[in-house]
Amino acid sequence: xxxxxxxHSDKEVLVLGDSHAAMLNLFFDKLGKELxxxxxxITASSCVTIPEFDYERLPEWAQRPCLEQIKEAQxxxxxxxxxxxxxxxxxxxxxxxxxxxxxDFLRQEASTGKQVYLIEQEPLLxxxxxxxxxxxxxxxxxxxxxxxxxxxxxxxTRHPNTVSLNxxxxxx
Length: 172
Description:
With 172 residues, the chain is of the alpha/beta class. The chain has eight helices and eight strands, in the order ββααβαβααββαβαβα. The strands form two sheets. A six-stranded mixed beta sheet has the order 1-3-2-4-5-8. The protein has a two-stranded antiparallel sheet with strand order 6-7.
């Protein structure tokens, strides 16, 4: 885990998820400095760092680090008032066990009055953008992320205090 943003602030948010959440380090660092909060970011590769995550579907080498980060996140969940969750939703959501873990997590956090923000998935490119630039080709976008984002929006309708954030649509 790491802290980003205004490290002297008493206000702290918790950022959980897989590598898609880890990619937001600079975003939370800048936003935290501008708005006066620090972000505790706890992520793991391919592992959404929430209780009951179905880590068994990960490669064996990734399972132990996943469990360690989930345990680390659980240290900070009780005192967190605001939680951000980001993931490679189009890879995570096909797992029924993950869907259950996500819904259980959202239900639990809502019952304690926490505000949870699910950060929707960014567009996926079908090919390497550097190769496309070199060959002067356009880069096609894989539409599966749109289906995953629709599923996230549907999931949050069942959980109070849960909001989805779509930076693509807002232009942020």
